[in-house]
Amino acid sequence: xxxxxxxxxxxxxxxxxxxxxxxxxxxxxxxxxxxxxxxxxxxxxxxxxxxxxxxxxxxxxxxxxxxxxxxxxxxxxxxxxxxxxxxxxxxxxxxxxxxxxxxxxxxxxxxxxxxxxxxxxxxxxxxxxxxxxxxxxxxxxxxxxxxxxxxxxxxxxxxxxxxxxxxxxxxxxxxxxxxxxxxxxxxxxxxxxxxxxxxxxxxxxxxxxxxxxxxxxxxxxxxxxxxxxxxxxxxxxxxxxxxxxxxxxxxxxxxxxxxxxxxxxxxxxxxxxxxxxxxxxxxxxxxxxxxxxxxxxxxxxxxxxxxxxxxxxxxxxxxxxxxxxxxxxxxxxxxxxxxxxxxxxxxxxxxxxxxxxxxxxxxxxxxx
Length: 368
Ligand code: PEP
Ligand code: MN
Hints:
The protein is of the alpha/beta class. It has 2 domains: 10-257, TIM Barrel (Alpha-Beta Barrel), CATH 3.20.20.70; 273-359, Chorismate Mutase Domain, subunit A (Up-down Bundle). The protein has helices spanning 32-44, 69-82, 93-101, 111-114, 117-127, 144-156, 183-192, 202-206, 212-221, 248-257, 269-309, 316-332, 337-359; strands at residues 22-25, 49-51, 85-90, 106-109, 134-137, 162-166, 198-200, 226-230. An 8-stranded parallel beta sheet has the order 1-8-7-6-5-4-3-2. β3 (85-90), α3 (93-101) and β4 (106-109) form a beta-alpha-beta unit. α1 (32-44) packs parallel to α10 (248-257) and α5 (117-127) runs parallel beside α6 (144-156). Bound molecules: phosphoenolpyruvate (PEP) and manganese (II) ion (MN).
């Protein structure tokens, strides 16, 4: 799967004043004063690389969608005034032309854009011949190839100052995260493209400010190259992503409390990796329970139907078909035949119990 990219090491294109590298600033550039004050405070805490959303990809229309070119003018003034650098999200040719016109230092491609190869190709075509660094966020859906494909398209356009941002994935089912990190995908990205800088975005992963510190530390322990963290002078009143933004002061405290790998006496990355994999197993198990519950609902419907029609619970043809098709599907996935046979015997037995109870008018109860 690996296709080597031609990457310029990150230290050549991001000035690392801090260890760890932190990019920070508001989710959205709301007003000149809000942006200026946030950046001024960040700078006073030693942060010199700002982020700000200028065009905001909002889920529903009719909400604040960014100030566009007006915000770029504010950024250009603040860059001069404070001597700081800025990263901005772009999603099309127009965004790129304007961002370059106003001297934006780093462009990033948002999660909703990375999913679309047409959009990524449009961006790649527009940045050909330019030298501004580009960071590519993971796609919303957990698809490593799509993420790598986007990086390849941008790299093929000649952009060597290239990095990735891990901002978590949209998943069904409940999770403590807003966008589940699925660390394994970012680790796989790193092992496919070892020279690619990968930055973690704990703000969008967590969706709340309380979990940002621990998630940032986790990322640093896993060897990430930096963090992008949303900050705002008045987080609760932010026009977008209010719950996950922190004040520049809180950010500064986090910055000094975070331990980078070098400053960490004991290398805990293996333990963290183990914990990550365990967390992913927990997530998968939750999905298994959800799916079992959905299956039982369907079995209950069939039970009611069989009861009305006076049919027997066990129908041998259907059972043979289930057994064969499930085994075929499992073998295609390389799963062990005996394991799947045993599993389906238990599932089928459980289903028969549920149906029998319905037919005998007892409350359904699935026992494995
Ligand atoms: C953002 O960084 O504010 C943003 C919209 O990010 P994402 O593409 O990760 O949702
Ligand atoms: Mn945001």
